Amino acid sequence: MAKRGVKIWTVRVALTLVALLVLGMVGVWLFLRGGLAQLDGRRPAAGLSAEVTIVRDAQGIPTISGNHREDVAYATGFVHGQERFFQMDLLRRVGSGELAELFGARAIPVDKSHRLHRFRARADAALAKMTPAERRFLERYTAGVNDGLGALASRPFEYALVGAAPRPWAPADSLLVVWAMYFDLQGMLEPRELARGWIRDNTSAAQLAFLLPEATAWDAPIDADSIAAPAVPLPERAPAWWGKPPGGKPARIAAVDFVDSVGSNNWALAGSRSKHGAAIVADDMHLGIQLPNTWYRLALRFPSADGTMRRVSGVSLPGAPPLVVVGSNGKVAWGFTNSYGDYLDLVEVGTDAARPGEVQTPSGWEKPERHVETILVKGAPAEQFEVRSTTYGPLREAGGKNYAIHWIAHADQAINLNPMKFESADTLDAALSAAATVGIPAQNFVAGDDQGNIGWTIVGAMAGRAEPGIASTFPMAAGDAAAGWQTALAPSDYPVLRNPAGGQLSTANSRQLNGAGAQVIGDGGFDIGARNRQVRDQLSALGTGADVAGVYGIAMDDRAIFMTPWRERALKVLDAAALEGKPQRAEFQRLLKQSWSGRASVDSVGYRLARHFMWSLHEVLYGGANAQMASLDEKATAGSASSRWPAVVARLLDEQPAGWLPSSYRSWKDVQLAAIDAVIEDLTEDGKQLSAATWGERNTATIVHPIGNAVPFLKRWLSAPADMLPGDANMPRVAGAKFGQSQRMTVSPGREEEGVFNMPGGQSGHPLSPFFLSGHQDWVAGKATPFLPGAAKHTLVLAP
């Protein structure tokens, strides 16, 4: 009996444990389900003037319709709050420097670097200066966000994993999200200036001019066929640091996994060249890609000034003011690319023992304001962080010097709600005029209207300089700051180009202009220009009578035009003498010849070898300098100093000057062979076969929700498939493992039903939502899916 009793109790305990496990799993399931957005039904919403409908299609893309713009703002906030709140929270924390409150001490360095700018205080000040109507607009969006969050049956799942409660949204938070984009889009300006300053301080004037050219043959400005820049004389000798390995060790390919993070393409075709007489506008913005995607697709419907219903379709940025970032309003379509102008100066400040507590700026001696910032740290005591600010911006230290960071992001014009003007722009001219008043990180603005007109300008805050030019791209001493920026550029001084003779426009982060306007923009890190040249030439090849499909197809162009000369250089040095007794070099040569498609295709080994050869040369020639620049800023490199370095190296390989041959090599051929050997060593590490080193094996997507990286065992449920991606930098189809085309759009205003669109992630940030990855495979394949939302599948009504 005793044994039987023990057995019964054992069974009961086991059943109880199973039941508890099942109940726990059900509880987790119900908790997760409780974080899903409401898609159907009717719910009350305080403050609405009339009903608002949120109609979603099969991919979860909403059309939000209301009788008042503020009501539509509220409903936009409601859907953002339900489907993207954690993403919004991260963005405001990036802008304000408050990530450590969620992620602990590891986020403190980022928080400190961002707290220097005190954007939370600036956001409060900017909000106070807004008109009552503007504040009310943000307040209605804020109310929608908080009501959407509050309507969830359980908090977003991310907060359970980080052990925090979501903090309610506030109107100032929407401004912080825009400032987060300043960090994303202009965050390389500081390390760029430091890198350029190091090179200037360690070269002669002639060497500097050669190493940092203002233009190359790759440039394709929109106002000329090319940049008329004569070749800079080649100095007799290289600087002392040239060709030195980092730390005295043999050169390795530190940049082998580099993916060019310079991003975005857009282009427009005039009605004179389109099939139907209206302009066609295409845009693909390149950003770091994770889940959920940066953008949230939607269409907004509300009455225009004449009482008719206006439809504005495109993408919004969750958390930012509830506007369409790029898209079409039925009359005008527009797109952005990062302009890479010169919007920041590093001004060295002086000190004097006789003036304790003061610093010398271009305005004279002053005592910096001191602000104590408190950084809340998860699992640890809060940290106090002092910020010292001058009239030229906050102070930072680098290389034993103190610099004031004079950044346009600090100006009153840096942020406003003027992007709303694009919603009501009925003509190209109206859109171009509005662009010069907008407060966002400065972008190339390419637009077209339903009458066939196309145009370009800069949209966003620009720096007005007393002496514009290349000199301001280096750190300046206080006495030299007259060359720096003085005030925000006046809207009347913005460069503009309307209806060029060729009937086309394109930008891709490279130098935009050959004329005087180039000096107004300045060079804040332009791309080398190969990508825009390829876009421009493809657009020209369309001729007349082009349609949306043809214009969209340019975004899929992965031809390796830029990389082809590097393949040819490698093949040239792999002659019989170089191959003798070197079977791996022979294999390298064979793969360059036989596994080369002329594209950055996933099955090409040749493309990967040619690309790595170029970057291996970068390490051989710049590796030692990069190691020294890293002491100033971890992002300061020769590549950040100038994206034109491949043109510099190409010229040296072609001319082979003895005075620039690194001392540890007998010939320029040996330099190139050493670079090839380094590629072979890297790609055959751990017994790997060189023939298995395809571009797809290297360029495999790792698109993950941030929680998937923080909690690795959840990664499989919080990731997109590990697709091999064609494309690379320096071609229209930019693609990297975590960086690339965050959206693709091609649309003709007034003919939106013919437009196409895709993006790498779905509408929802919740892995149980059917909209978490909806559309992802279309993006991988480059499928031209419709620009407008599809047929209604779900309807939610918000009622007063």
TrEMBL record:
Top-rank lineage group of the source organism: Bacteria
Family annotation (SUPFAM superfamilies): N-terminal nucleophile aminohydrolases (Ntn hydrolases)
InterPro entries the record matches: Ntn_hydrolases_N (IPR029055), Pen/GL7ACA/AHL_acylase (IPR014395), Penicillin_amidase_A-knob (IPR043147), Penicillin_amidase_dom1 (IPR023343), Penicillin_amidase_N_B-knob (IPR043146), S45 (IPR002692)
Keyword Cell division in annotation: no
Database matches in CDD domains: Ntn_PGA_like (cd03747)
Keywords: Hydrolase, Zymogen
Chain segments annotated as transmembrane: none
Record family assignment: Belongs to the peptidase S45 family.
Name of the molecule in the record: Penicillin acylase family protein
Organism for this UniProt entry: Massilia soli
